Amino acid sequence: MRPIREENPAEPVLAEVLPFERPGAAVRYEYDIAVSFSGRQRSYVHETVLAARQLGLRVFYDEDVNGDWWGRNILVEMRRVYRTGTRFVVPFISEDYLASRFGMDELWFATSTALHRPGPYILPVVFGDIELPADVLHPYTVYLDAGKHAPHEIAAHMSRMAGAGE
Fold first, then answer.
1. DSSP calls for 26-60
2. Which residues pair with 34 in a beta bridge?
3. How confident is the model at residue 6 (pLDDT cuts 50, 70, 90)?
């Protein structure tokens, strides 16, 4: 473990050092997909998660772990998932998400992981016509528009991505 300095240096955080991933090395993740979203998009994300699970994906969804994480530090647990526990992260980005401390924290940890992984790791879905800051999402990153794709279509895209690397 090593300390990582964040926006508020008064709140130091310990984070796991990412294991070195050799090309071709078999890595087993707890989840195929981890979703990150704002509460206002919960209904859409919930439908997407159900559809993805029907396609056989192992999906991290916050409602599933509430009892398992009882008494634990939610930030530490979430950071573990978004750094080392999942093969892909699907952030559902909206104005509310960009204003959410939890959402941005999850995305920050996913972004730091993406720097150490070959190929795509963050698979963004965007709600509405919002301006995405370059420090949140690179301007040339391809994303799916939630307004043009039903939840089952997003789930089908997730399934294709998860199957592409196997």
1. ----SEEEEEE--GGGHHHHHHHHHHHHHTT--EE
2. 60, 89
3. very low
Chain-centre distance for alpha carbon 117: 14
Backbone conformation region of residue 87, classed left if phi is above 0, alpha if psi is from -120 to 50, else beta: alpha
Q: What global pTM score does this model have? A: 0.81
Taking residues 67-81, report their average pLDDT. Answer: 88
Say which residue the tokens 């997909």 belong to.
Answer: 33
Domains of the chain and CATH, by start: 31-164 (3.40.50.10140)
Q: How many CB atoms lie within 10 A of CB 138?
A: 12
Whether the predicted pLDDT of 12 surpasses 50: no
The pair of three-digit structure tokens given for residue 114, joined into one six-digit string: 């993406």
Q: Give CA angle at 35 (31, 41), nearest 5°.
A: 155
CB atoms closer than 10 angstroms to residue 158? 25
Backbone angles phi, psi at 84, to 5 degrees: -130, -5
Between residues 91 and 6, which one has the greater pLDDT?
A: 91
